[in-house]
């Protein structure tokens, strides 16, 4: 994807495609996460985007290794961040880490599964949850435990050859 004029490297990025078949015809359109909008200088006022499909092996390799969205967090000229946390993410993190936020086992699994899938290779594996912060009247985890567990997974994956068991 790119938006004219393409003046810097992050204004052309390769996104992963996910087809949403359950939507009605009136909502079948190209969508992207708003964290990417700053790279394109897009502001939702009718911006025109160009979509390109890499056809050859070289184009597919360039898309994966040079212009993939996870590789476009810094402006090449000065190293300043161009993509990152948006106010929604910051608000969610604040609410999750408040003292009175407690999470059920089902929600804990739901929150951690995407983090584990993102750093795991191979078949899905069982989650080994940290011990709950509350045992009675029901098992409950804190939002801080979710964030700490996720950060630990990412650090283990980035700093070693893979997540530790």
Automatic annotation (TrEMBL):
The keyword Cell inner membrane does not apply. SMART domains: RPOLA_N. GO terms for cellular component: RNA polymerase I complex. This is DNA-directed RNA polymerase. GO terms for molecular function: DNA binding; DNA-directed RNA polymerase activity. InterPro entries: DNA-dir_RpoC_beta_prime, RNA_pol_asu, RNA_pol_N, RNA_pol_Rpb1_3, RNA_pol_Rpb1_3_sf. It comes from Octactis speculum. Belongs to the RNA polymerase beta' chain family. Its EC number is 2.7.7.6.
């Amino acid at each position: 994807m790119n938006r004219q004029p393409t003046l810097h490297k992050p204004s052309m990025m390769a996104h992963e495609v996910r087809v949403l078949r359950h939507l009605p015809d009136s909502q079948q359109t190209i969508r992207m996460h708003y964290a990417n909008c700053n790279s394109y200088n897009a502001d939702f006022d009718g911006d025109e985007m160009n979509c390109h499909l890499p056809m050859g092996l070289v184009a597919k390799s360039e898309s994966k290794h040079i212009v993939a969205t996870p590789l476009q967090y810094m402006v090449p000229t000065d190293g300043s961040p161009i993509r990152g946390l948006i106010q929604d993410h910051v608000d969610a993190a604040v609410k999750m880490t408040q003292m009175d936020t407690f999470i059920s086992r089902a929600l804990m699994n739901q929150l951690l599964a995407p983090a584990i899938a993102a750093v795991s290779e191979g078949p899905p594996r069982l989650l080994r949850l940290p011990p709950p912060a509350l045992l009675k009247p029901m098992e409950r985890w804190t939002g801080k435990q979710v964030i700490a567990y996720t950060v630990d997974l990412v650090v283990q994956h980035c700093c070693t050859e893979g997540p530790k068991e």
